[in-house]
Amino acid sequence: MAEDPLLRPMYPEEDLGPAEERLVLFLMQYWGGPTTYSDNRGHPRLRMRHVPFKVDRAAHDAWLKHMRDAVDELGLSEEHEATLWKYLTYAAASMINSPD
């Protein structure tokens, strides 16, 4: 995402490391892992956290492309990959806050 002109403005930190860490902690918590994300940041409130940014269909598609590349690198079982991808596509759709 560091080089993505559409998505990069949504990550104001110069170093994307903290954003990546937040995503990892959120997904770990979502799938039943430790509550480190909520302990550090409170309730996820994903839609609220994305309100300052224009999230349209193009941003949705760009984010999912990056997630698809990342998921493909994980080497998950077919079942786990399908479950994760179903959630990511649902989450991406729910973040849209602007018409195309």
TrEMBL record:
Instruction: Check the record and name the Pfam families matching this protein.
Output: Bac_globin
Tell me the keywords, alphabetical order: Heme, Iron, Metal-binding, Transport
Q: Which domain of life is it from?
A: Bacteria
SUPFAM superfamilies associated with the record = Globin-like
Q: Which InterPro entries match?
A: GlbO/GLB3-like, Globin-like_sf, Globin/Proto, Hemoglobin_trunc
Q: Which GO terms describe its molecular function?
A: heme binding; metal ion binding; oxygen binding; oxygen carrier activity
- Family stated for the protein in its record: Belongs to the truncated hemoglobin family. Group II subfamily.
Q: What is this protein called?
A: Globin
Q: What is the lineage of its organism?
A: Bacteria, Bacillati, Actinomycetota, Actinomycetes, Kitasatosporales
